[in-house]
Amino acid sequence: MSETLRDLRLQNKKTCAEVAQALNVTKNAVSNYESGIRNISLEQVVSLARLYDCSEREIIDAALNSRFSR
Questions:
Q1: Which CATH number belongs to the domain containing residue 36 in this structure?
Q2: Alpha carbon 12 to chain centroid, angstroms
Q3: Sign of CA dihedral 26, 7, 41, 14
Q4: Could you read off the pLDDT of 8-61 as tens digits, one per residue?
Q5: Distance of alpha carbon 66 from alpha carbon 43, whole angstroms
Q6: 68/48 Cα distance (integer angstroms)
C-alpha cells in the first residue's frame, strides 16, 4: 500500500502537505503511510479517493497488485 500511496500522490502532483491537509493529519503521518511505518485507515482511503478523483477500489487494487507482483 505504501508505494501505491506515494505513486498516487506524485501522479496527482500533490505535496505531502496537501495530502496531510486533506486527511487532517500531519505531514509526518503522510510520510509514515508512504513508507509503511503506519497503516492508513479505510476512512482515509475514502478521502484519498476523493482527492485523487478515483475509486477506493482503484487504490486498494493498485496496492494489492503492487504487493503481489514483487
A1: 1.10.260.40
A2: 11
A3: positive
A4: 999 999 999 999 999 999 999 999 999 988 888 889 999 999 999 999 998 888
A5: 21
A6: 22
